[in-house]
Amino acid sequence: MPTSAAPAIERADDDALQRVLRRAELAARIERQVLQDGVHATAIPGMHLMRSSQDVKPVHGVCQPALCLIAQGRKRVLLADEITEYDALHYLCVAHDLPVSGEVIGALPEQPYLSFRLDIDTRELAALMLDIGRPAEPRNGCPRGLFTGMTSSAMLDAVLRLVRLLETPADIPALAPLVIREILYRLLTSEHGWRLAQVATPDSRGQRISRAIAWLQQHYREPLRVEDMARSVHMSVSSLHHQFKAVTAMSPLQYQKQLRLQEARRLMLAEGVDAATAGHRVGYESPSQFSREYARLFGLPPARDIRGLRQPNPHARA
């Protein structure tokens, strides 16, 4: 082996070892902080820690922009018909509000799934971009609003320092905002940072689709008029359809359906309303259509699904 290559190999080996050690420390610190299965808010605003000691069936919800990092285990995320799996070597970034389902796979009591989530404030992202300049030129078209990438040593180190702050609460107000800013910087300057940059770039395609999603979230109970939606974000109907599907993997009508069904499920579970009432409240005129579409998304008719969710199972909602 040429001697000139030896230092580079040694540096690569050292970097790989440091990543292994940092991931092990991150897992240990999350496990100390989170003693029970579930999703747990922390003293750091926007930061959540998750634990599951067994596999978890798909959990549906609208995921806001966030960075997700696994310290131990694997997860499968479904967006429309697209499946994304990631593990402790990779991060997952959600750049837009997206209806997804998440499923923990391969978790065991002796080796639980452990992960970190940091919500992304697009205003902080835009402010950071003003300071550092655009990290990468936006590409043509609209990228998918959910993507994965290799977790760099620098990003892993910043996440670990943020989690460490939970053990020194007095330091959180002064130091947490600085570390969060660094994490956003590492994400923006990564290989896929341009995807996230689009959301915070004024009048970009990505930002227009974000505004279209916000409009749809406000009006999802009403009959969908795509013309009104397109007018609100200054796009043509055809351009909106094409770019909305590029970002969300679904049409505006399919997105609206997801919002309606997830809210109806919440109404039945949290407020105890019956299926017909829940369907009507979210905009369905036909109870039979509501039941059919509900079963297609969640796998069971409304009443059976809610009965199953109410059965005591400490791991079911992790």
Describe the structure.
- Helix content is 50%, strand content 19%.
- A six-stranded antiparallel sheet has the order 1-2-9-4-7-10. Strands 3-8-5-6 form a four-stranded antiparallel sheet.
- By secondary structure, it is α+β, with helices and mostly antiparallel strands.
- The protein is built from twelve helices and ten strands.
- It has three domains: 196 residues, Jelly Rolls, CATH 2.60.120; 46 residues; 57 residues, Orthogonal Bundle (Arc Repressor Mutant, subunit A).
- Helix 2 crosses helix 4, helix 5 packs across helix 6 and helix 9 crosses helix 10.
- It is globular and about 70 Å long.
Tell me the fraction of residues in β-strands, as a range.
15-25%
What is the top-level CATH class of the largest domain? Mainly Beta
Order of helices and strands, N to C?
HEEEEEEEEEHEHHHHHHHHHH
Q: How many structurally independent domains?
A: 3
Spatial order of strands in the largest sheet: 1-2-9-4-7-10
Keywords: Transcription, Transcription regulation
Domain HTH araC/xylS-type: 210-308
InterPro entries: Homeodomain-like_sf, HTH_AraC, Tscrpt_reg_HTH_AraC_N
Protein name: AraC family transcriptional regulator
